[in-house]
Automatic annotation (TrEMBL):
It comes from Cladophialophora chaetospira. Keywords: Magnesium, Manganese, Metal-binding, NAD, Oxidoreductase. Its EC number is 1.1.1.83. This is D-malate dehydrogenase (decarboxylating). It catalyses: (R)-malate + NAD(+) = pyruvate + CO2 + NADH. Pfam families: Iso_dh. Its cofactor is Mg(2+); Mn(2+).
Amino acid sequence: MGSISAEQPVAPPPSATTFNIASIPADGIGPEVISAGIKVLNTLSQAFSSHFTFNFTHFDWSSDTYLKTGRYIPEGGLDELRKFHAILFGAVGDLRVPDHISLWGLRLAICQPFQQYANVRPTRVLRGVMSPLASCQGSLENAKKLDWVIIRENSEGEYAGQGGRSHLGQLWEVGTEVSVFSRHGCERLLRFAYETAQSRPRKKLTFVTKSNAQRNGMVLWDEVNAIVAKDYPDVETDKMLVDAMTCRMTLQPESIDTVVATNLHADILSDLAAALAGSIGIAPTSNLDPTRKNPSMFEPIHGSAWDIAGKGVANPVGTFWTCAELVRWLGQGEAADLLMDALETVLEQGVKTRDLGGQAGTEEVTSKVCEEILRLGKERAFFVKGKE
Ligand code: IPM
Ligand code: MG
């Protein structure tokens, strides 16, 4: 950041990069927060003098579409989606459709075939946001040290989709849900987690398991970890059982940096993490295909929140942070940093939605963040003279 002086503004590159982004706003507050995210991304491009631009294509894949057509994703839809640089996803979930149908019909129907096996969930107490840890521990300092990245296995484990139902309708009906752990699936995700830990200043990875009770899949998960760890001698690792991990996250947040866990364990831990960082309304998620053969998908964690949908009060911060993760994945680290700075400055000024203790609506937060992006763009001289 800030390596370009104000006196010598950067010239736009001869051929600016255009990123083709598929947007899937889907259900509930999804459309509101995604349209706020698109405004912020376009403003970011402007603040960088169109050094990069975004070209959005909207897909109306949602529960409404499912109820009308019987499908979330039309025939050939995934081939269409494959052409994009990245996917910006809102939220899926609707009271009229059972949750497992909507999840498997849309979100997992993209994550699984696109091999988005690494789910990345950064958690940090943003400037201007109060962590509940500050009051329950009486220590604001500890809460401020909460700066984690949770790496969630995103392709198998407890979400592998294996299982079945027998003796339907009988008193002795059974249902099974089989957790699947493959050596390859564990290894590719663990390598990604070690590399993530390696790229962060503390180079520290906490490996989460439950191999004391689950004696097959989880033991394989542990064994693969022990092998992979050898290739990353500079990463300091420790091992936690998932139940004990919840205590450590709450009582010693400063002792944690990067965390790796299975699909379900990390699902649960990341909700706890979001709450400890102040609100589920601010947390982002990236569903990554680290091989970059397929587009990766970026979404706020919060879900469809129908109770506040259409009221203009949804917190767009989770989507803005998600957008920062998206641009970072596309190689625009400076832009991601600037967006996060703008976002945190606005939160610090007290412009926040009700879930964060403020009074502002979605639009007000969005326009303030856009103003701040443009201001920082000028301050850091990313604007080219005459283009403002
Ligand atoms: C998440 C969510 C989803 C999940 C739900 C909506 C199925 O909780 O992204 O964390 O469990 O993966
Ligand atoms: Mg979850």
